[in-house]
């Protein structure tokens, strides 16, 4: 629908509008022959509408050309074309020609075409015959000619009237048609507007639909991708489903088999339940009996330890270290016990050559033999495990609720620290008593948990130097410092003692104990740089508070286990010049000697059951007073150097131990009767 193109209907309408003046024209047309005389101007008026009509129609339209044209009309020249001019009939008289020429002049349209040619100005020939020129006297002839001419004009007027009438009819018809067409045009315009609106709406809808189609296509693409993925997934799932179905079948088969077995087992379970109930009763009985036996074991164990002696002394001689001089043969002897070499040694003999003593004849005096007997003697080849075996029973006593104290006594370098903490390098073979005792405690506590006992352990490690107490577990800024640790009662009226400012660390595994021993070693190392070899001039006290509880029976037990590495027992050489360093050393030695002799005195007072025990005479005995005496167990290791050069200090140590902790012969007697008691207990033990 091209808006620029004019529809034929509109074209017709336009033409009709142009012709409108024609509608008014008929009233002015001459309708009768008498009116012909009106003159040239009137004649032009008559012709004018016709001319206008013809011009208005322009190029021949279908409508215009469908009617027959009267010759007069064809003589009116078209303003637009020159070709119309030659068509003017030559018949037309001069007046008619003049009229036509006037019309052409007033139109002023088209190119300057000569409208009045000389030949066209000739008068019209009426009746096809041109009368010859009449003489002036032939008036009758002239009249006749004029009548003829008039007749011709009348005929012509008549024809024009008819034609006029025809044209009026045509015009009316055309007007009617134009009205109809106008109405139709309006309808069509309305229709067109509606169609256009519809088309616009349709266009819009089409646009929307196109966008929607694009969107849907896009979605379709996505959906297709999704569908493909889902299809793939579906395939995977189908395979999985098949596999699961197979497995399910297999499981069902197994289930059936299991159900069959289950029904068989159910009967068995019922009988087993009965059996279990019987076993539970038996177990409860056994537990009861076991508990009774455990209590009996504790009692007998303690009795055995008491019979062995609440105070025991072991002597340990360290091996000669690489680079040290080999002692002369027979310098130290370890005679066998009464039962021969299989008996663990309990005696030690030391040969001493005294150069100062000589015979009168000048021959050197024979070496003096010094014999000592102890609860047990460990020759240089004894391993750490062998030593621990002997004290494991005491560790058990601590778990049973009896305080235990184990000391290492001897000169510096005799092997005290080696015995207590172990050798260097963390080799498990050379682990000392402290880590071994702790491991043993943890494992026994674990076993006893099966019987309803719950144990907890809290460790502390302090050093007593020159009668001042220092925390070896101090951390941070307190590390290596002297500290203001004091020994105090835990509370008013309490028997329990505690060291103020010292760390008490709960431990539950070997690793934690290892960490504590390492920390103590570091603390001692820091102190060593400040004061020369202070560790050998101080007592190191490792204390472990053991607490046990049997919640089911409302039983409790608590006891401390003390492992003490004493300060070197050597004396100061009296021949040494007393410089400022030596004076300090002398003060240290006096403090050590004082505390060691107080320890000896305390032990002696305890073994003699004296009413006064001088605990308060030293920090060491004061700190350990709850672990000494009464039912407490005490063990002293006397560490001896195997070197001949240390013979004097070795003798001193051995004498100190014999004097302070001399084993009464009665104990040995009791020991044998205790063994008989243990044998009895073993017989009564339930068979596991
Ligand atoms: P103390 O603590 O009495 O001064 P140490 O325990 O430091 O003496 O021992 C001194 C040296 O002897 C250390 O090098 C130690 O490793 C070594 N030592 C002590 N006893 C033994 C032993 N039984 N076996 C092997 N080496 C030992
Ligand atoms: Mg030491």
TrEMBL record:
Residues at which ATP binds: 410-417
Region span, Disordered: 25-71, 107-138
UniProt feature coiled coil, ranges: 150-310
Annotated Kinesin motor domain residues: 310-663
Cellular component GO terms, alphabetical: centrosome; early endosome; microtubule; nucleus; spindle
Listed InterPro entries: Kinesin-like_fam (IPR027640), Kinesin_motor_CS (IPR019821), Kinesin_motor_dom (IPR001752), Kinesin_motor_dom_sf (IPR036961), P-loop_NTPase (IPR027417)
Protein name: Kinesin-like protein
Signal peptide limits: none
Compositionally biased intervals (Basic and acidic residues): 38-51
Compartments it resides in: Cytoplasm, Cytoskeleton, Microtubule organizing center, Centrosome; Cytoplasm, Cytoskeleton, Spindle; Early endosome; Nucleus
GO biological process: cell division; microtubule-based movement
MF terms (GO), sorted A to Z: ATP binding; microtubule binding; microtubule motor activity
Function: Minus end-directed microtubule-dependent motor required for bipolar spindle formation. May contribute to movement of early endocytic vesicles. Regulates cilium formation and structure.
UniProt keyword Nucleotide-binding present: yes
Nucleotide-binding is among the record's keywords: yes
Family: Belongs to the TRAFAC class myosin-kinesin ATPase superfamily. Kinesin family. KIN-14 subfamily.
Protein keywords: ATP-binding, Cell cycle, Cell division, Coiled coil, Cytoplasm, Cytoskeleton, Endosome, Microtubule, Mitosis, Motor protein, Nucleotide-binding, Nucleus, Phosphoprotein
Subunit structure: Binds NUBP1 and NUBP2. Interacts with PPP1R42.
């Amino acid at each position: 629908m091209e808006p620029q193109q004019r529809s034929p209907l509109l074209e017709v309408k336009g033409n009709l509008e142009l012709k409108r003046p024609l509608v008014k024209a008929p009233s002015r047309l001459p309708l009768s022959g008498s009116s012909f005389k009106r003159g040239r101007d009137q004649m032009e008026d008559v012709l004018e509408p016709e001319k206008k009509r013809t011009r208005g129609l322009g190029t021949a339209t279908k409508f215009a050309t469908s009617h027959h044209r009267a010759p007069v009309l064809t003589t009116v020249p078209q303003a637009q074309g020159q070709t119309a001019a030659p068509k003017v009939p030559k018949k037309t008289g001069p007046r008619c020609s003049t009229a036509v020429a006037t019309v052409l002049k007033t139109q002023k349209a088209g190119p300057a075409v000569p409208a009045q040619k000389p030949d066209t100005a000739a008068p019209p020939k009426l009746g096809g015959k041109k009368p010859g020129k009449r003489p002036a006297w032939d008036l009758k002839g002239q009249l006749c000619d004029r009548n003829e001419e008039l007749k011709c004009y009348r005929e012509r007027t008549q024809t024009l009237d008819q034609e006029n009438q025809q044209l009026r009819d045509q015009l009316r018809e055309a007007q009617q048609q134009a009205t109809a067409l106008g109405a139709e045009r309006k309808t069509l315009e309305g229709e067109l507007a509606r169609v256009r609106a519809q088309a616009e709406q349709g266009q819009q809808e089409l646009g929307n639909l196109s966008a929607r189609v694009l969107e849907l296509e896009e979605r379709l693409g996505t959906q297709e991708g999704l569908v493909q993925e889902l299809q793939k997934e579906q395939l995977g799932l189908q395979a999985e489903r098949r596999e699961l179905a197979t497995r399910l079948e297999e499981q069902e088969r197994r289930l059936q088999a299991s159900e069959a077995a289950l029904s068989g087992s159910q009967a068995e379970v019922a009988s087993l339940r009965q059996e279990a109930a019987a076993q539970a009763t038996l177990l409860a009985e056994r537990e009861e009996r076991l508990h009774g036996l455990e209590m009996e074991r504790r009692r007998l164990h303690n009795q055995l330890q008491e019979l062995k002696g609440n105070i025991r002394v072991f002597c340990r001689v360290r091996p000669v270290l690489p680079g040290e001089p080999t002692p002369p043969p027979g310098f130290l002897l370890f005679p066998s016990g009464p039962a021969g070499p299989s008996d663990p040694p309990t005696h030690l003999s030391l040969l001493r050559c005294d150069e100062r003593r000589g015979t009168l004849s000048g021959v050197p005096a024979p070496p003096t033999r010094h014999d000592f007997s102890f609860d047990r003697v460990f020759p240089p080849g004894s391993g750490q495990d062998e030593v621990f075996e002997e004290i494991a029973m005491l560790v058990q006593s601590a778990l049973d609720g009896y305080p235990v104290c184990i000391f290492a006594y001897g000169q510096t370098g005799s092997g005290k620290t080696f015995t207590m903490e172990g050798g260097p390098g963390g080799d498990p073979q050379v682990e000392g008593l402290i880590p071994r005792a702790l491991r043993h405690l943890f494992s026994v506590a674990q076993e006893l948990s099966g019987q309803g006992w719950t144990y907890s352990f809290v460790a502390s490690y302090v050093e007593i130097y020159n009668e001042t107490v220092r925390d070896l577990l101090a951390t941070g800024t307190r590390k290596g410092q002297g500290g203001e640790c004091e020994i105090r009662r835990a509370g008013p009226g309490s028997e329990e003692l505690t060291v103020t400012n010292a760390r008490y660390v709960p431990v539950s595994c070997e690793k934690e104990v290892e960490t504590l021993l390492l920390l103590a070693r570091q603390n001692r190392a820091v102190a060593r740089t400040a004061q020369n070899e202070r560790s050998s001039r101080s007592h190191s006290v490792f204390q472990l508070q053991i607490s046990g509880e049997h919640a089911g029976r409302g039983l409790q037990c608590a006891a401390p286990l003390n492992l003490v590495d004493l300060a070197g027992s050597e004396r100061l050489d009296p021949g040494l010049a007393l410089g400022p360093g030596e004076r300090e050393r002398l003060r240290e030695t006096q403090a050590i000697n004082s505390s060691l002799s107080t320890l000896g005195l305390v032990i002696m007072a305890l073994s003699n059951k004296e009413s006064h025990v001088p605990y308060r005479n030293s920090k060491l005995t004061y700190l350990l007073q709850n672990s000494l005496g009464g039912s407490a167990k005490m063990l002293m290791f006397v560490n001896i150097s195997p070197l001949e050069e240390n013979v004097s200090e070795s003798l001193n140590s051995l004498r100190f131990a014999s004097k302070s902790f001399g084993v009464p012969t009665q104990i040995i007697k009791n020991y044998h009767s205790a063994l008989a008691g243990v044998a009895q207990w073993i017989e009564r033990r339930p068979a596991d």
